[in-house]
Amino acid sequence: MAGLARGVAAAILLLSMTTLGFAANKVIIILDASGSMWAQIDGKPKLEIARESLRSVLQSVPAEDEIGFMAYGHREKGSCDDIQLIVPPQAGSASAISAAADSLKFLGKTPLTAAVKQAAEALKYTEDKATVVLITDGLETCGGDPCALGKELEASGVDFTADVVGFGLTADEGKQIACLADNTGGKYIQASDEKALQEALVETVAAPAPAPEPAPAPAPAPAPEPAKPEFNLLPTAVLAEGGDPVTDGNAWEIYKAKSDGTRGDNVTTEYGAYKGNLEPGDYIIVARDGEAKTEQKLKIEAGQVYKPVFTLNAGTLIIHPRPSAGADVVDGAAVVIDYPGADAPATYYGTTKIVLPAGDEKVTVTIGQGVAAETIPLAAGKTVEKDIIVGVGHIVANAYYTAGGDKADGSGIGFKVFKAKKKIDGTREEVTYAYGPDSKFDLPPDDYVLIATVELAEVEQPFTVKAGESQDVKVAMNAGVLAITAPGASKIEIFETKKDINGNRKSIGYNYDAKFQTTLPAGDYAIVADTSDNDSKEGTATVKAGERVEVTVK
């Protein structure tokens, strides 16, 4: 979770840094609007943090700068073509971009490579200087190759740059998209301290430029300074005491130390094997890898070289979430890890590899309606790789007008899943629901009842789920389609033909129009068509299963 918070701050910084070049370039900001943006940081969805960050940064951008806004995954689930340039590059677009971000729905996949390609083309990158800023909390899920795209755009563009913010990605994941920035001469930012980066945003974007000062009188030549070592800080991070140095995926955060010993301004954030030169003074150095971190205070004195060792007291946990033993990993499975010292549990998806503080790791995996939880001990310096079996079966539900007949694939199709066993009051517990043909459910082993609805037809069908098994549940609706035309009518209502003891007929459904088409269970029906002058006409219809009946009421 801490990693995600740092990713948000990094997004703010990169946008602020990019705005420095807006006056010279046309820029398109691409925002990841995939479903994983609903994950929360300290109780607040990432998508809300992204919206607020955009709004804050854009308020400080000069009105004449030409900025565009693109999103992907905001209109369709499971589509790799759901990419839209919502606000074309134009001056004074800050309000339009903020409004567009506020209206996004976050539900789709992550076609980030195709989105960057489309943004580059929209900027006419082969003719003009162009910049794209990509903010993503996930990796490519549509088969694109961001590394290859970066090389292609760099080779064919006039002066093309892609800056990338890895929004909550691990360091290993970040490497898979950092190449897009590296190959175009752009920046990749993975994580940073939120407060310090927001202060940098104010300092670099919002603060006015100082007035030029008159040139000072020539100063006397300074005395030559003593030779300095090439590097005066050579820190090392290890997972366990005496372990091998961590040089891949780790981060270093260096802060000035205040007089009370707390963190001051951020000096730099570096990654991997780090060698640096710091001015003499008091510092706080933070070593991070995954969710593990440790810090030391260090006083730098002129002419000295410091080689501090940071022991993270951490191990590596690899989780493979599977619906059943031997089954493939489910990429959409939610993996929640409550690790020692966590402010809040961290959420990952699919196969998860993460460095965690040593101790008991409480892992909860959710696939559909199935949940499995385990506590896994993790020792410092060790790697634990484990399959977590949720134990669910996979169901695909469809409705058919008749057994072996046509499948219902239009609108008005819905499925609700209930526990088969009734409660003491005679009702059943609702488990989940879905809409449309080929509705999919992952369910724990049990007996269930599926209620299928196709417009005005409804059928209940029992089924049983076994762990590791996939099955198609085909519901025969014993229904047909009734198409009614009533010229001049303002309302058409369908009734059962049989009257009750009071002489009333039960209403099945109605429509305020001169035409009404719907799906009904096979049987006989009465039709009443009302006109605007309070006149009414009646007719009858017989619906046959699997057939279409057309009736005109005059």
UniProtKB/TrEMBL annotation:
InterPro entries: VWF_A (IPR002035), vWFA_dom_sf (IPR036465)
Domain VWFA: 26-205
Source species of the chain: Rhizobium loti (Mesorhizobium loti)
Protein's name according to its UniProt entry: Ca-activated chloride channel family protein
Sequence segments annotated as region (Disordered): 208-228
Residue ranges, compositional bias (Pro residues): 209-226
A Pfam family: VWA_2
